[in-house]
Structures are given as structure tokens and as C-alpha cells.
């Protein structure tokens, strides 16, 4: 399982087929927070488990990548009560070792991946944070204003 975590000022996901906004985030509630939120791109590979989701959620919510009053990365998304947007992205498991056209053979099949994606959303919502999502399996357009930029990859 792979998470690409981007600290953003705002982000929005639009479903391409009908141009409907399906998820949108802005800032957290912490007064020292300069309007930071997190955009999470989630890749699920074959064999990933709910235990891995639990571990990544635990790490993600404690990860000290949000700015404090002195613009230092000292706070977690829980500390700042920041908003989080989670988008499933199977292309994180693209393999180009054998040519120029990516193979996605390592990515989990959609039915199984959706179960883990929804499980992650449930676990994140249990934290009390405002959790928004993309539209699983659909072609989407993502607009984001990166902050920092801060981009971190977590994988297990």
C-alpha cells in the first residue's frame, strides 16, 4: 500500500463524466494553521490488508507535517483538525521496467481495492476529521494548490 501525501491549501476532485464536484477540502480549524489540509493519493497493491490500512492511518494522523505558528512542521493533522481528501490511484503501482508502456499488474483488482479504500475512509472518519473522497474507479480531475511544497510517500 502506498500513500502520496501532499500538504495543500485547498483541493477539489471533479468527476469528469458529469463535471460534478465529489470532494473538496480547504483548511483546518487550528488558528495557527495557515490553511493547510492534506490530499492523499492511495495506491493499493495485490495482497494488501486491513492491518496495513490500520498502520498507515495511525502513522498518517500523527505525522507532524503541518505548520505551527512559527511555520515549522511540528503539528499533525489531528492537532490542526485539518481536512483530508483521499483519492484512490491505482497508477501509483505502475511498472515500466520492461518498456515504455506502464503495466499495472501489481495493482489490486478493483473490487478488492475498493473494500480497502472504503475501510481506510471509515478509519479516517473515526478520528473525527472532515474526510472527503474522490470517486472510486472513475476518471477524475484533481485541482490542488500545494503548500510548501510538502510531499511525503508512506508505504508498507
From TrEMBL:
Gene Ontology biological process: D-amino acid catabolic process
Chief place of localization: cytoplasm
Keywords for the protein's UniProt record, in alphabetical order: Cytoplasm, Hydrolase, RNA-binding, tRNA-binding
Domain of life from the UniProt record: Bacteria
Signal peptide: none
Catalysed conversion reaction: a D-aminoacyl-tRNA + H2O = a tRNA + a D-alpha-amino acid + H(+); glycyl-tRNA(Ala) + H2O = tRNA(Ala) + glycine + H(+)
E.C. numbers: 3.1.1.96, 3.1.1.-
Keyword Transcription belongs to the record: no
GO molecular function, one term: Ser(Gly)-tRNA(Ala) hydrolase activity
Annotated motif Gly-cisPro motif, important for rejection of L-amino acids, positions: 148-149
GO cellular component, one term: cytoplasm
Subcellular location field: Cytoplasm
Domain remarks in the Swiss-Prot or TrEMBL record: A Gly-cisPro motif from one monomer fits into the active site of the other monomer to allow specific chiral rejection of L-amino acids.
Subunit structure: Homodimer.
HAMAP family, per the entry: Deacylase_Dtd (MF_00518)
Record family assignment: Belongs to the DTD family.
Primary role: An aminoacyl-tRNA editing enzyme that deacylates mischarged D-aminoacyl-tRNAs. Also deacylates mischarged glycyl-tRNA(Ala), protecting cells against glycine mischarging by AlaRS. Acts via tRNA-based rather than protein-based catalysis; rejects L-amino acids rather than detecting D-amino acids in the active site. By recycling D-aminoacyl-tRNA to D-amino acids and free tRNA molecules, this enzyme counteracts the toxicity associated with the formation of D-aminoacyl-tRNA entities in vivo and helps enforce protein L-homochirality.
Cited PANTHER family: D-AMINOACYL-TRNA DEACYLASE 1, D-TYROSYL-TRNA TYR DEACYLASE
Protein name: D-aminoacyl-tRNA deacylase
Organism: Candidatus Woesebacteria bacterium GW2011_GWA2_33_28
Phylogenetic placement of the source organism: Bacteria, Candidatus Woeseibacteriota
Gene that specifies this protein: dtd
Amino acid at each position: 500500500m502506498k500513500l502520496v501525501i501532499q500538504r495543500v491549501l485547498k483541493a477539489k476532485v471533479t468527476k469528469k463524466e458529469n463535471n460534478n464536484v465529489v470532494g473538496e477540502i480547504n483548511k483546518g480549524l487550528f488558528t495557527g494553521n495557515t490553511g493547510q489540509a492534506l490530499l492523499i493519493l492511495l495506491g493499493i497493491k495485490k495482497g494488501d490488508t486491513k492491518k496495513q490500512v490500520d498502520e498507515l492511518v495511525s502513522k498518517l494522523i500523527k505525522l507532524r507535517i503541518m505548520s505551527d505558528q512559527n511555520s515549522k512542521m511540528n503539528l499533525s493533522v489531528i492537532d490542526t483538525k485539518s481536512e483530508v481528501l483521499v483519492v484512490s490511484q491505482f497508477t501509483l503501482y505502475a511498472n515500466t521496467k520492461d518498456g515504455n508502456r506502464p503495466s499495472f499488474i501489481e495493482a489490486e483488482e478493483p473490487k478488492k481495492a475498493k473494500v480497502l479504500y472504503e475501510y481506510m475512509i471509515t478509519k479516517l472518519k473515526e478520528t473525527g476529521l472532515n474526510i472527503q473522497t474522490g470517486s472510486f474507479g472513475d476518471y477524475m480531475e484533481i485541482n490542488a494548490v500545494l503548500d510548501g511544497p510538502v510531499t511525503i510517500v508512506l508505504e508498507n
